[in-house]
Amino acid sequence: LAAASPRPVWAKLPERSRMPYAELVAVLVDAGVHGVVVPNGFDAFERLLLEASRPIEVIAVGGIASGYDVTRARAKGARAVQVTAVLRTEGPGLFARLEREMQKAAGERS
After folding, report:
1. What pLDDT shows up at residue 45?
2. For position 2, what pLDDT does the model report?
3. What distance in Å separates the CA atoms of residue 102 and residue 80, rounded to the nearest whole number?
4. Concatenated DSSP letters for 31-93?
């Protein structure tokens, strides 16, 4: 799969998979997939990171509503997060709030 594309290939995982994450990640990595988009917030994201048989890049989707959530996801290994639902309700001002909360969260960890 990846050999057919000059750019990194990512896959969006279904909300529910019949295949265990360890097996699913192994199949995707063998196919040349660079990373995955994991829906269902922290539960699925954390489970994938714990169960994955091989390293893979991850974008966490769902349940990301604050800078603290962004900081938590990034600290656990997310390459990026998606904030679509909260962006729809708050608009572009969301990003300034996320930045403030991320800075505050970083200060709390130091």
Report:
1. 86
2. 67
3. 14
4. TT--EEEE-SHHHHHHHHHHH-SS--EEEEESS--SHHHHHHHHHHT-SEEE-HHHHHHHGGG
